[in-house]
Amino acid sequence: MAFSPVLLSSCTKHPEMEDFKQIQLQWNAADDAAEQSEARDNCVIDITSKVMRHPVVLKSKLVEIAYEVAYRLDEKGLLAFDARCSDDRFADLDECSWRATCGGGSASVVKFHNER
């Protein structure tokens, strides 16, 4: 399997909050089909935006959150993303586990651990 990791780092600040959040996402394709998906770039941008603005992330007590994000094509041809915090010490926190689907012309959906 070929893996082509992409690192995307961004910051978010919610108007009502003084906390600064640094978000890092390490994207790892499961195979060439996922990596070559026409929807990949738009999905990564859309999902990153949704993760940054999600209330669970904004309310997090963590100053920095780094995610390892694995993605693949599911049986419907959509990109399926599975993310976990890079630091296992925080594995039980709601903000450290999310899944997303994207592609096929529909809006991406991001669900955090507490929303499953």
Write up what this structure looks like.
With 116 residues, the chain is α+β, with helices and mostly antiparallel strands. It has one domain (6-115). It is built from three helices and six strands, in the order ββαααββββ. The protein has helices at residues 32-35, 40-53, 55-58; strands at 6-12, 21-29, 64-73, 79-85, 97-103, 106-112. A six-stranded mixed sheet has the order 1-2-3-4-5-6. Strand 5 (97-103) and strand 6 (106-112) form a beta hairpin. The longest helix is centred in the middle third of the chain and has 14 residues, at 40-53. The chain is globular and about 35 Å long. The protein starts with 5 loop residues before the first strand and ends with a strand. The relative contact order is 0.20.
Sequence stretches where pLDDT stays below 50 over 5 or more residues: 13-17
Structurally, the number of domains stands at 1
Please summarize the sheet with the most strands. Answer: 6 strands, mixed
| Structural class determined from secondary elements | alpha+beta
**Separate helix tally:** 3
Strand order of the largest sheet: 1-2-3-4-5-6
Strands, total number? 6
Tell me the span between the first and last alpha carbons.
29 Å
> Which percent band covers the strand fraction?
35-45%
